[in-house]
Each structure stands twice: as structure tokens, then as C-alpha cells.
Amino acid sequence: MTATAAPPTARHQTEALGAAERSSMFRHASIVAGVGLLLMSALAGFGKFFALDGLVTTGDATQTAHDILGSEATFRLGIVSLILVAALDVVVACALYRVFRPVSKNISMLAAVLRLVYAAVFVVAIGELLGALRLLSDDAYLRVFSVDQLNAQALLHINAFSDLWYVGQFFFGLHLLALGYLALRSGYVPRLIGVLLAIAGLGYGIDSVGATLSQTPWTPVSSFTFVGEFLLAVWLVARGRRLAS
To answer: What is the pTM of this model?
Structure first.
């Protein structure tokens, strides 16, 4: 007689369903993280490098005020873009925690917390931009301050945004270093991406310390070392559906 396979028990069926559900959640988190990172890149590029840097003239409060008021809608949209970036940081931090939790729950949690700290500092920095805009666009302040004084104070707020941005980048750099370690240990993320994430983290850390110590305008190192996070985003979107926890 040929032995027949025993039917699966309820426990085995439950375990199989649980594993399938975890795999589905893992793939979903991978795609959410990848799409979030790509959206953040586009929003930050517009908000920081076009709407802000394109309208601010370093050391010239009058020209900066003139350019911002002349393109006020663009400046406001830039601020909104940066607020969305901060919100996406929270989403991405949670999604990346889920992606890398199988490697190390504790280090994944640390990486998520570091990104959340960065997001909190970033929100405070964005508040400085709102303060600058209020000074320039509200005529009520002209009853107390001259135009030159308002322009100078607005530029101080914008410079405070940059200072806080660099402070936040230190925590962001630590976040990327943790991600790089997790990627190298994972076995499912290409090791090259792990190395590039670590390099990107070092770049942000160097920028944060260098901008603080330098007595002259700092040239960002991260402009050349940012590639790791972008490649991680592309990889997560392209391969996220194939990943399983």
C-alpha cells in the first residue's frame, strides 16, 4: 500500500498563513520605502535647491528679500515641499525599520530613531523659513522696523535654517551609517549599496562638523557622496516585490 501524506494540521496552516502575511508586509514596506525615498529626492530638490537656494543671495539681505518677494509663490511652494519631505521621513523611517528588522531589530530601531530625530530638527529648521517669509510679507512689521532691518532679520532666519539643516545632517549621517551596516549584513541587499550608504553617511557627518568648524562658506561633501541612498531607493522599488522576510 502507498502511504498517503497526512493532511496539514491547523497549526501548520496558521504558520503558513502567518509567513505569507509577513512576506507580504515585508514587500509592501520595501516598496513604500523606495517610493518614499524617490519622492523625497524630487521634493527636496525643488524645495531646497531651486526654491530656496535659487532665491537666496549669500550675504545680501536686500537682494534676497527682493528675489523672495518677486517669486513669493515659488518660495511658499518650496516650504510646502520641505514640509512634505519631513513627513515622508517619518514614513520612510518606519518602512526601512520593517525592511531591515530581520537583520537586527535593535540596530534597525536605532536607525529609525536617528532618522526621526533628523526629521524633528528639520521641522524646526523649516519654521525659520516661515519666520523669514512672515517678516518680508507682513507690512505690520514696518511700523516697528525699517525695511533694511526687516531684510537683515529675514536673512538671519534663512541662515538659521541652514545651520539647523547641518545640525540635522549629523543625525542623518548616523542613520545612513546604520543602514549601511544593516545592508552589508542583510544578504539580500547588494553589498555595493551598503558600502555606498556608509560613504553617504560619512559625507553628511563631515558636512555637519565641517560647516560648524569652518569660518568660510562650506562646500558640501554630500553633494558627491549621496548616491547610496538613491540607489537603495531604486533597488527597493525594482526588487521590492521579490523580497521575502
So the answer is: 0.85
